Amino acid sequence: MKIIAMTNKKGGVGKTTTALATAAYLGQSGFSVLAIDMDPQANFTQASGADMNVAGTFDFLNGTPIEKCLQKLPKYTMLASGPRMTRAEKEFDQIGRERLLKSALARVKDYDYVILDTAPSVLVLTQNALCAADAVVICCQADSFSLLGLDDMMHNIDLVQEYYNPKLLVAGILQTRYNAQTKISEQATALFQDKAKEFGTNVFSTVIRENVAIKEAQMRQTDIFTYSPTCHASEDYAAFTKELFAIVEGGKKKWPKNSPKQNSEETPRISIPRSPRKRTTRRR
């Protein structure tokens, strides 16, 4: 079972969209997927069409058996967020509170992948996600604000690696809301590559193009592949999920032959040589 977190301290950069699309594409490709909403805003829960007012992530972290917290959705199973998640910072005040999710997931064996959506912060719920994850994807919009937040985000990931989860892999930086017709997207790509090299990670060669269908799908509380399977966003997220799969599995597992296929000729990729993740020592 591989646990993958989508994160960034900045909001509006596509964390929830990426978590939902990744969970959906893995699910429709034949993998068993558990999606966990770790964000008190519960956008992942709402966009999935799940119920916020029943047992979910909060209860699971408090020790409730997972069977009593699950919601079965068409392509994945979900632990939903809701209003009670706002109490997490106060209620989870015990020693070792950063490891609640890791401990709870240690009893779960029935899934190929666990996809975590995190809050735009590094408070206790995001700390739990990073401590439990095998890999983390940093979602970044092509703008200067995302670049400014990268240093802080990587600093926090380094701390988690040092004190809690030394095996946490930074799978890469994913560019979202990409617009090839603007100079800023092209310039941001080069800057993200520089930052990735500095941090010893990579930029995903797949970019997620700006597409109104994403918001439309969320309004209808469904995933992009169900709502518009041939749109650019579907093509991009399918390509990204396969790229992520290859990185996380490290060649140990092959993508299912009977899985859905996207039009690779229309899927934008940036030619970026990938280098192994190396731990680097930086001044804090």
Can you describe this structure?
The protein is of the alpha/beta class and 284 residues long. It has helices at 15-28, 43-48, 57-61, 88-91, 100-105, 124-132, 144-163, 183-199, 212-219, 224-227, 232-249; strands at 2-7, 33-37, 70-72, 77-79, 113-117, 135-141, 169-176. A hairpin with a 4-residue loop joins strand 3 and strand 4 (77-79). Helix 1 packs across helix 11 and helix 7 (144-163) packs parallel to helix 8. The chain starts with a strand and ends in a 35-residue tail after the last helix. 48% of the residues are buried. Mean pLDDT is 90; it is low at 280-284.
What topology does this entry show?
Layout: E1 2-7, H1 15-28, E2 33-37, H2 43-48, H3 57-61, E3 70-72, E4 77-79, H4 88-91, H5 100-105, E5 113-117, H6 124-132, E6 135-141, H7 144-163, E7 169-176, H8 183-199, H9 212-219, H10 224-227, H11 232-249
Parallel strand pairs: 1-5, 1-6, 2-4, 2-5, 6-7
Antiparallel strand pairs: 3-4
Structural class by helix and strand composition? alpha/beta
Number of domains: 1
Instruction: Give unreliable regions as ranges.
Output: 280-284
Please name the fourth-level CATH homologous superfamily: P-loop containing nucleotide triphosphate hydrolases
Oligomeric state of the chains?
single chain
Under CATH at level 1, the class stands as Alpha Beta
The proportion of strand residues reads 5-15%
Q: Do you know the CATH architecture?
A: 3-Layer(aba) Sandwich
Major sheet = 7 strands, mixed
